[in-house]
Amino acid sequence: MEKHSHSIKKHELRGPQKTIFPMAKTKNVLSPKLSLILLNIFIIATIAAVANAGSNDLGSRSSKTRRPWPFKKLNKPVVLMISSDGFRFGYQFKTDTPNIDLLISGGTEAKRGLIPVFPTVTFPNHYSIATGLYPAYHGIIMNTFTDPVTGEVFNKGLQPKWWLGEPLWVTAVNQGLKAVTYFWPGSEVPKGSWTCLEVYCPRFNNSVPLEERVDSVLSHFDHPEDEIPDLLMLYFNEPDKAGHKYGPDDPRLTNAVSRIDKMIGRVIEGLKKREIFDEVHVILLGDHGMVTNCECNEKAIYIDDLAGWIKLPAAWIQAYSPVLAINPQWGKNVENQGEKNAEVVAKMNEALSSGEVKNGDLLKVYLKEKLPERLHYSESSRIPPIIGMVGEGLMVRQNRTNSQECYGDHGFDNKFFSMRTIFVGHGSRFRRGKKVPSFENVQIYSVVADILGLRPAPNNGSSLFPRSILLPFGATREIEYEV
Questions:
Q1: Phi and psi at residue 48, in whole multiples of 5°?
Q2: What is the pLDDT of residue 50?
Q3: Domain segments of the chain as ranges
């Protein structure tokens, strides 16, 4: 980890905490009679403990206290996490989704959706789900970007140096558990003890049918008992693909949602066939939502319109939409570059607020360190010095075109409801039929770690959050866990 560019504030991260109780000192001496009584009690307790350990040695490998697992088919907790890319919250109401509904009715749902991290795009959010870190801390700040310091380009690459933090699959294998992934972004990257063979962790191939992906993951449950993975993570690239191509309101998008529901049905059927549906913790979620960009020329802001105030060289602009990213190239010999960046921001905002730039009031430009704190998008040298936040569904372009295509997009401020996605958890640790308030996806890492009995790595989630969404280990699903 590069200390100068990706330092993580201690107060931003939460990991496991241990409380040490000092042994009390005493000068009291026990009588021989009392000592004999205590010795007998100790022997009986020891025999009982050994017998109990022999019959219930099924708890977490990372736990010092063995805990009984209440089911018969699987001898341990198992998590199957499924991501449906671009599944905007509300898609489940567009058409019949009986299989998703089954998970919801028998499990726990984020009532008004799961909140993605900013920027609301695929790679940063999938890696935030996996690590519990905001993009500024795990390093994947966009799907593609240029490091302003080194000039190196990241384009969904697999070089370990880009991928910071500790994802769930690494946490699992580091603590003696087994993990497999299927197309989950970032899981193909060798990292520490994680060097998953392609037979267990296939390299992304968009042409692989969704059915084949499901069947491949389910086949792991046919292995001998001690070879069944503890953690399985599966990725679907729909309905994001349809959402981008047609927009969120097109019937063809609805067809893609129906197809995802059928895949969830295939998962449920496969687990039921193996008599383990109630034993596996199935988590269904998405990475972000989607919004229409129809009438795009009417919903655009043009950089050329700012020319009366400031002319921005095209080479400075790393990305236009939905996040405007500007990295001024002042040259090594120019002093006070921070002040010059501030002048650029001031001139741009002056132009945008003048009333003379079309839709100018819907773009706000910031020095990255001045971005709203709720975005957690400043603590990385990989983030360009100047960031522009555009209104919902709008775009930034260099100049006017005659393009009138109608499509969908995402990446906008995560405060917009259209950027929310789904979260459903089904399994013995999830409350049946429970609705919980919306939460950020950085909390999911600790939830999975809790289910699997793992010691979580430092992360941006709350160590107390799992208590708000999970039942205590071993509790029946009818019991509410008060927090």
A1: -65, -40
A2: 38
A3: 78-291+415-469, 296-405
pLDDT at 31 over 70: no
User: What's the rounded Cα separation, in Å, for the pair 357 and 351?
Assistant: 7
Q: Which tens digit of pLDDT belongs to each residue from 147-181?
A: 999 999 999 889 999 999 999 999 999 999 999 99
Contact 329, 316 (CB under 8 A): yes
* CATH assignment, 296-405: 3.30.1360.180
When pLDDT is averaged across residues 393-410 and rounded to a whole number, the result is 84
Instruction: Tell me if 96 sits within 8 A of 258, measured CB to CB.
Output: yes
What sign does the CA torsion over 321, 322, 328, 329 have?
A: negative
For the record, the structure tokens of 135 come out as 């993009």
In CATH, the architecture of 78-291+415-469 is 3-Layer(aba) Sandwich (3.40)
Torsion 298-300-301-305 (CA) sign: negative
Mean pLDDT, rounded, of the chain: 86
| pTM of the predicted model as reported, rounded to 2 decimal places | 0.85
- What pLDDT, on the 0 to 100 scale, is given for residue 56? 31
445 contacts 456 by C-beta, under 8 angstroms: yes
Residue from 97, 108, 122, 131 carrying the catalytic annotation: 122
- Pairing assessment for the beta strands 386-390 and 408-409 based on DSSP bridges: unpaired
Asked if 421 is an active-site residue, the reply is no
pLDDT at 45 over 80: no
Q: 427, 278 in Cβ contact below 8 A? A: yes
Quick one: DSSP state of residue 108?
Answer: E
Q: Is there a common fold for 78-291+415-469 and 296-405?
A: no
